[in-house]
TrEMBL record, chains A, B:
Top-rank lineage group of the source organism: Bacteria
Pfam families reported for this sequence: LacI, Peripla_BP_3
Record has Transcription regulation as a keyword: yes
Classification via SMART domains: HTH_LACI
Gene Ontology molecular function terms on file: DNA binding
Domain HTH lacI-type: 9-63
Alphabetized UniProt keyword annotations: DNA-binding, Transcription, Transcription regulation
Full protein name: LacI family DNA-binding transcriptional regulator
Length: 338, 338
C-alpha cells in the first residue's frame, strides 16, 4: 500500500491540528482509554481533514496480512448501502487496507460465491450484509483466521459479530407516532419476510399496535419484493376495500419511494412514516416523516470492530445495536379522519 | 473465482429463457455482429435474470490474469457514482472478475496512491474517475499490460480510453431551454473549474448564452467547492444586487440539492434546471427539471471497453461520449418575469 509520492500527514500534524499532545492522538488511534469524547472527536476530525493514516504495512506483513478486506452488500447502487460503503472505506483506508466490494442482489448463492472469492484472495476480513440464512460455509475461513463482521443483518447458524439498527424499536416508534396522531387502522408495507430487518420491523409494528390494543387484520400488512409493481399492488390493497388504512408505515427506502410515487393517484392521502431517510425528504410537500437509520454509523462501527478483531481482540462475538431516530416533517403528523 | 456450490446457469439456460438459439447467445456474449438490437436486449435481460456469467477463469489464468479490476471513484457515497459502480460491478461479474473500489475524494494524491495500490495487487485493469491532472504516473503500469479506462472525466497528459457524458452539450441544452422560456439573465453555479466536467458545463452554458446574444457578467457565474456554505454564498450573490438572475443552471447533483434547500429562504423563486437527475425529483413541487446523465451507461460502457482491451483489442485509445437528456418537470419552465 505504500507509495513514494508526495508527503504524508504524520501523527504530529494531527496533534498540531487538534491542539493536543502526541500521546492523545496515539490513544485515539489505538482506541485506548483516557481521552474525553470531545477531544477524541477533535482528533478524529483532524485525522479526516488531513487524510492521516496509520502506517500499518510493516505490522501487516509481520502478521501475514494482505491489507485488504471484502465488503459484501446487497446493492452498491442503493443510497443506503453506498453511504455504508463510504464509511467502511474510510476506516479501511485509515488502517491502510484496500477494499473489495461486491453486491449479492439478495441472492444467497451470490453472497456465498462472493465471500468465497474474497477469501480465495486472502482478504484479512469480511464485512457482510448477508442475503443467505446459513453462514456455516464461512466456518473454515473463520477457523483459518479470517475476521468477519455482519452488518445490517446478523449471521445465521454461526456465532459472529454483528452491527445492526434497532429495526424493531424504530418500527415501534414510528407506529406509536401514528397512533398518537389518532390513527387506529395503520398499514405496514415491508420487504420479503425472510429478510431479518423486514421481519424485525414487522415485529415492532405489531408490538406497538398490540400495546395500544389495536387489532391488525391480515389485509393491513403486505410483505414482499420491493419492485414497483408489487409495492403498487400492496398499496392498492391496503387503501381500498371496506376498511382502508388511514396511515402507513413503509419498511425501507425503496418501498417509501414507490409509495410516494403512487400517492397522487390514490383517492385520499394516508399519513406516512417511512423507514430510512431519503435525500430531499424535507423538500417534499408535506415533508416526509421518517425513522432514520444511521448507515454511516453502521459501516463505521462494523469496520472498527473488524479491525479490532484483526488487532487481536478475541473476546466473544458481540452484537451492537444502533438506535434509529424519528424525524417528524409533516407526512406522519396528519390527524386521522373522524 | 470458481466455487463448488450449487448449479450455475449455462448459455443453454440463457438461450431457453430468451427463446433464441445458442449461437445468438454466443454472439451477444462475445459482442459479435448479426443480432438485432431487440433480440440482443432480450438475451441481455435473460443473462441478468439468470445471473449467467462467462467462465473466464481458464482463459484468465492462461493469460496471467488475476481476474480483478480496480474502480477508482470520487466518492462511493455519492448516488451518481454508486449507480456507476453498480454498472461496473455487473460487467466485471459477468467476466468473472472481482472489484476493488476506492474513493479519491477529489484529491489527486489519493487517486494516485489508490491507483498504484491497485496496480501493486496486480489488477488486470482500472476504471478511473480521475481527480488529478497528470496521469503519466500510470505509464509504466500501462506499458506492463494493465488496461485503463477513464470515465466521467478524461485522462490528462496520457492517451487513454475515456467514456464521458456530453457535458457541454447538456449544459447548452439546459441553458437554451431557459432562454426559450424568456430568461435573459441566467446564472450558472458550478463545481471547481479545474474539474473537467465543471469546465465543460460552464463552456456549454457560455456558448448557449453567446449564441442567443446574451451577455454573461462575472456576477452571474459562481464556480467552487460544493459544500453547503459555498453554494449558499454563491446563491446569495447571484440572486441579490441590482440585477438578480431570473433563472439558474446548477452544475451537478450536490449543487442542485443545496440550491433546493435554500430556495424557500430566497425573496423570489428563480427558474431552475439542474445537471444530474435526483431521486424524488418528479415529486417536488414544482417538479425538478434536469439535464440527466446516464451514470449506469457510463459505468457499463467503460467496463465493456476495459474488458474488450483485456480481450486483446489494440486499436488506438478512443473517447466515447454519451448524450444527456433534458427532462422538463416544472422548475425550468417558469416564464421570466416582465
Amino acid at each position: 500500500m505504500t507509495t513514494q509520492y508526495g508527503t504524508r500527514p504524520t501523527m504530529k500534524d494531527v496533534a498540531a491540528r487538534a491542539r493536543v499532545g502526541l500521546k492523545t492522538v496515539s490513544r485515539v488511534v489505538n482506541d485506548e482509554p483516557g481521552v474525553t469524547p470531545a477531544t477524541a472527536d477533535r482528533v478524529r476530525s483532524a485525522i479526516t481533514e488531513l487524510g492521516f493514516r496509520r502506517n500499518d504495512s510493516a505490522r501487516m506483513l509481520r502478521k501475514g496480512r494482505t491489507a485488504s478486506v471484502g465488503l459484501l452488500l446487497e446493492d452498491i447502487g442503493d443510497p443506503f448501502y453506498s453511504v455504508l460503503s463510504r464509511a467502511v472505506e474510510a476506516v479501511a483506508r485509515f488502517h491502510g487496507s484496500l477494499l473489495f466490494t461486491g453486491s449479492s442482489a439478495e441472492h444467497p448463492q451470490r453472497e456465498r460465491e462472493l465471500a468465497m472469492a474474497f477469501c480465495a484472495r486472502r482478504v484479512d476480513g469480511l464485512v457482510i450484509v448477508p442475503a443467505g440464512d446459513d453462514h456455516r460455509y464461512l466456518l473454515p475461513e473463520l477457523a483459518a483466521g479470517t475476521a468477519a463482521v455482519f452488518v445490517d443483518r446478523p449471521a445465521e447458524q454461526i456465532e459472529a459479530d454483528a452491527v445492526l439498527s434497532d429495526s424493531a424499536g424504530g418500527a415501534r416508534e414510528g407506529t406509536e407516532h401514528l397512533i398518537r396522531h389518532g390513527h387506529r387502522r395503520i398499514g405496514f408495507v415491508g420487504d420479503q419476510p425472510q429478510i431479518h430487518t423486514a421481519a424485525e420491523r414487522l415485529r415492532g409494528y405489531r408490538e406497538a399496535m398490540a400495546a395500544a390494543g389495536l387489532p391488525v387484520d391480515p389485509d393491513q400488512v403486505a410483505m414482499g419484493p420491493t419492485d414497483p409493481a408489487t409495492v403498487a399492488a400492496a398499496l392498492e390493497r391496503l387503501t381500498s376495500g371496506p376498511h382502508p388504512v388511514t396511515a402507513l408505515l413503509t419498511g425501507n427506502n425503496r418501498i417509501t419511494l414507490e409509495v410516494l410515487r403512487r400517492l397522487p393517484a390514490l383517492p385520499y392521502r394516508p399519513a406516512l412514516v417511512g423507514f430510512d431517510d431519503l435525500e430531499l425528504a424535507e423538500l417534499l410537500v408535506p415533508g416526509l416523516t421518517v425513522v432514520a437509520q444511521d448507515p454511516a454509523g453502521l459501516g463505521r462501527t462494523a469496520a472498527d470492530l473488524l479491525f479490532r478483531r484483526l488487532d487481536g481482540d478475541t473476546t466473544p462475538p458481540r452484537t451492537v445495536r444502533l438506535p434509529t431516530r424519528l424525524i417528524p416533517r409533516g407526512s406522519g403528523e396528519t390527524v386521522a379522519p373522524g
